[in-house]
Amino acid sequence: MRLDHAGNIVILTGAGVSAESGLSTFRDSGGLWENHDPMTIATPEAFARDPGLVYRFYNARRLQLNEVDANPAHRAIARLQREHRGDVFLVTQNVDDLHERGGSSQVCHMHGELRSAWCLACGSRYATREAFDAATACERCAGRGGLRPDIVWFGEMPYEMDLIERKLAACDLFIAIGTSGTVYPAAGFVRGARAFGAYTIEVNRDSSETSSVFHQHRVGLAGELVGELVEEILVQPPST
Ligand code: APR
Fold first, then answer.
1. For every one of its 240 residues, what pLDDT tens digit does the chain have, with 9 covering 90 and above?
2. Which CATH class name applies to 25-67+115-151?
3. For the whole model, what pTM was predicted?
4. Which terminus of the chain faces fewer neighbouring Cβ atoms within 10 Å, N or C?
């Protein structure tokens, strides 16, 4: 496919797009799941069993956001969203806010966001940069004991799936950046896009579980490769 002829684009990102900003991935050596059993942290049952451990895990990751910043991959994606003449739909598995800090205004956080609190007592979700736990009063209803991290845990339904599926059906270019392709439904997006005729490109430092499904696999660091890919897409086709 001539990338400068791409119309509607869907970009899926994973932890690898934020790795060069200094945020740990999940399954690389030294990753978050190497030091924590996800089943004791990232499930509703874990939160019910040991809320303190879960609050501490997400509070530490939320506060770490104050020490990192967007990297060239985030900024290149934001540039594509600004300058591409077609639709660019960015869906991320990441719960950090580095896409926004890299200049993206439309970001679909299918797994939720670290900088959002969800009050189970009143149903409100609101932005916060602070640590919180069971003793913290909800900013909306002032109730205590109802706040949980606004993160989609294993066994819960990711956000915006209807919108994501509509975008996959309408895109002619699907790009996955920095994801291991191990967690569904995100890992299945490439097959969905291909079924609708999209050309598919993977950008990853290594191979992923779904590398063989992509038309093209660009091996390397997102901070270096994403900018080049965006350049290829944005170059204006010769006027015919
Ligand atoms: N550039 C490009 N790719 C990179 C880089 C980099 N600098 N660093 C790491 N990667 C790649 C790794 O090779 C790996 O394939 O990023 C991927 C990170 O994979 P994971 O750690 O599994 O992260 P992710 O795919 O986002 O995990 C998906 O699993 O635990 C759940 O909810 C969590 O959203 C997360 C989901």
1. 888 889 999 999 999 999 999 999 999 988 998 889 999 999 999 999 999 999 999 999 999 999 999 999 999 999 999 999 999 999 999 999 999 999 999 999 999 999 999 999 999 999 999 999 999 999 999 999 999 999 999 999 999 999 999 999 999 999 999 999 999 999 999 999 999 999 999 999 999 999 999 999 999 999 999 999 999 999 975 665
2. alpha beta
3. 0.97
4. C
Buried b vs exposed e over 81-115: b needs ≥16 C-beta within 10 Å? beebeeebbbbbbbbbbbbbbbebeebbbbbbbbb
Residue 210: how many other CB atoms lie within 10 Å: 22
Which residues have CB under 6 Å of ligand 1?
Answer: 14-16, 19-20, 25-28, 31, 38, 93, 111, 178-180, 182-183, 204-206, 208, 221-222
Ligand 1 centroid distance, CA of 16 (Å):
4
- Give the position of tokens 């967690």: 183
Q: Whose CA is nearest to atom 29 of ligand 1?
A: 183
Residues forming the active site? 111
CB–CB of 179/15 below 8 Å?
A: yes
* The listed CATH number (1.10.10.10, 3.60.20.10, 3.40.640.10, 3.40.50.1220) that belongs to domain 3-23+70-111+158-234: 3.40.50.1220
- What's the CA gap between 131 and 145, in Å, rounded? 14
Mutate to test the pocket of ligand 1, among 13, 25, 214 (most ligand atoms within 8 A of CB): 25
Distance between Cα 237 and ligand 1 center (Å)? 33
